[in-house]
Amino acid sequence: MNLKSAKTGKIGKAFVTERLSRSLSLGEVAAETLINIDYIKAIESGDYSIFPARMFAVKYFEKYANFLGINID
Fold it and tell me: Which stretches does DSSP call E strand in the chain?
């Protein structure tokens, strides 16, 4: 997973679109998933540089994708 690329930005938009289609705020997602709101924003913007290590980015990405029911390789 690159720290920032056109692909990660496009994938991030899929998260935003799905979250908004469910009328969920960032705060609601953070409360239900126990993911830091800054990490959610990073995933949605496609900028993973906030994460301390790639492993954290991957695990939070997977957790958020599972929560929204998004299947992204």
Answer: none
